[in-house]
Amino acid sequence: MPTDLMPLLYAIVLGYLCGSVPFGLLLTRAAGLGDIRDIGSGNIGATNVLRTGNRWVAAATLVLDAAKAALPILVARYYWGENAAMIAAIGALLGHCFPVWLNFKGGKGVSVMIGSLLALSWPVGLIFCAVWLVIAFAQKMSSLAALTAAATAPIFAFVVVNEWLAGAIAIMAIVLFFQHRENIARLMAGTEPRIGSEKKAS
């Protein structure tokens, strides 16, 4: 393998390994809330952790999932440059969504994408969060907010930074859309639940 590709390989492996740490699963077990995979949608992300009724564990999951994306990005940027940082971001998202330790069944990637964007370009990350909040408050749908923020993020990245970051974020947005395919089907059918409408899982 050409030596100039090795840093990118290191970056994606580092990103994947960090991203694949299932904080949602670990925290819910530690808090005595059971196996998060048996609750709600069954995924390990912060949104599903919130369905346990424990907001503090859900908030901790959100922060740690964002951090596990930001860390490999910052390390990759320091050692191997900006291109490696973007590759690490993609690796972290893939690790979170498809962790080898959990038979490739992970979370939907919103928290990881937030952490990635804040680490890659904090203005783009803040815009992502702002779009999410606006749509979430206006439409009361977490999935629609995430999909809208992800769809517009590459555009903002292109305007604020450059086409390379826009391309990397576009790849991440495609992964996020794939992970939300069931939500998209429910949105099209008009059956997607609104924020606050779901009852605590038993």
From TrEMBL:
Quote the subcellular location field of this record: Cell membrane
The organism's superkingdom is given as: Bacteria
A GO cellular-component term linked to this record = plasma membrane
Biological or metabolic pathway of the protein: Lipid metabolism; phospholipid metabolism
Task: Write the record's keywords in alphabetical order, separated by commas.
Answer: Acyltransferase, Cell membrane, Lipid biosynthesis, Lipid metabolism, Membrane, Phospholipid biosynthesis, Phospholipid metabolism, Transferase, Transmembrane, Transmembrane helix
Report the protein's function. Catalyzes the transfer of an acyl group from acyl-phosphate (acyl-PO(4)) to glycerol-3-phosphate (G3P) to form lysophosphatidic acid (LPA). This enzyme utilizes acyl-phosphate as fatty acyl donor, but not acyl-CoA or acyl-ACP.
UniProt protein name: Glycerol-3-phosphate acyltransferase
Q: Which residues cross the membrane?
A: 6-27, 56-80, 86-104, 116-135, 155-178
The catalytic activity of this protein is classed by the Enzyme Commission as 2.3.1.275
So what family is this one in? Answer: Belongs to the PlsY family.
User: Record's SMART domains?
Assistant: G3P_acyltransf (SM01207)
Q: What processes in GO biological process is this protein linked to?
A: phospholipid biosynthetic process
The reaction(s) catalysed by this protein are:
an acyl phosphate + sn-glycerol 3-phosphate = a 1-acyl-sn-glycero-3-phosphate + phosphate
Quaternary organization: Probably interacts with PlsX.
